[in-house]
Amino acid sequence: MKRLAGIAALLALQLPVLAVAADIGADGTTIIRIEERSVPGFSKQTVVPATQYLGFDAEDIRVKGLSLHFYGWGRVDLADDSSESTKPRSTDGNFSYGYLQYRFDKANAGLKAGRFFVYEGVAAEQVDGVYARTDLNKGFTVSAFGGIPVKLDRASSSKGKYIGGGRLGYRYGGILDLGLSGLLEGDSPTPYGKDKRQLAGVDLWLSPHRMVELSGRSSYNGTTEEVAEHSYLLALRPLSGLTAAVSYTDIRLKDYFTFTNTPSSLFNPNNDEKYRSHGLTATYRITQLPFPAEVSLDYKHYKRDSKGNSDRYGGELRLTPVEKLSTGLAVARIAAANGIMSYSEVRAYGLYYTGRYSVNLDAIANIYDEKVYGKKNAYEVTGGCGYQVTPALRVSGEATYADNPWYDGDVRGLLRVTYSYNNKKGAAQ
């Protein structure tokens, strides 16, 4: 918390100077939810959380290429506690990122310092530290980062003391991008104590022809000394308007989630088993109709050692019958290994928008093979509208009514205000 407050204070001190010197962009969203909760066996609750999201970007701060970026959110409950946690928390917030960045004129090189997200090969982390990358000769690239991992739950010790990693890549024209990456986190918590979190991986993007694209990654857990994951996607575009994709995933839960901070979840690393899936999706843009239309079909097979086999079949039709009106109808069937998890799903939706107004309606229903808490069906209907007050200010709202096995009555409302500000060299927009 002290580290978080220190970074926020440092950024706040910079704002008056930056406001004069830089190209500035800021955006914010205010969301107020209103929800009545009626769970069988528990007293009714009225929750009214007000959440403020705020982002800020300042480009070319006195020096071309130097920029500042910030994003965070805060919430306060105006009625009952909304956190659904064993520890009531009427206020909450998070500093998602805030960093200084410098982009060099050459070699696509850059530096970051502060709190940021990094996605480099096996690394998908939130870090307080520094990051650097650059292109090298002959198509090679290199990146590296280091610092202190940001805890996902600020009340626990779900992260280690330090973290570092990097990726060495090779690009060949617009055909190939191949990377080798690694990550090391010290004193990282596991279900059995603390250990070094060590990951290594290879990632691939290959497109030898515009009709073919292969991407994916494999990772190795150096702590458990086992392969953690294979995940690949092959996309094909054999005809104009037609895209087909085949996916394959193979995850060893024990090795993939060894350092998870949710040990009691479905992804419990104590489950020494495999999770595998493969699927096929196909999307076709229909050009024979007098208006835009698209149809998609999908199938996916799941296999988990302890749960058995499951399948999902689905299809969706998207139409724009008149200008500014988008509609869709989707159906799906989930056939699980046991009946209580098997159900069929139907969804219909529509959105009409003009330059300043918008109206949307969305309805979804699930029909279970077996009753869940005495009910065999669940449905939810959401309607909303929006109005663009000015080019920078928009107001919108939604209301939802649902009936499902988990709530006697589920009524929700939402009010959203979004606004943005841009100032290019002192000229407000």
Automatic annotation (TrEMBL):
Keywords: Signal
Superkingdom of the source species: Bacteria
Signal peptide start and end residues: 1-21
Name this protein carries in UniProt: Beta-barrel porin 2
Source organism (scientific name): Geoanaerobacter pelophilus
Highest classification ranks of the organism: Bacteria, Pseudomonadati, Thermodesulfobacteriota, Desulfuromonadia, Geobacterales
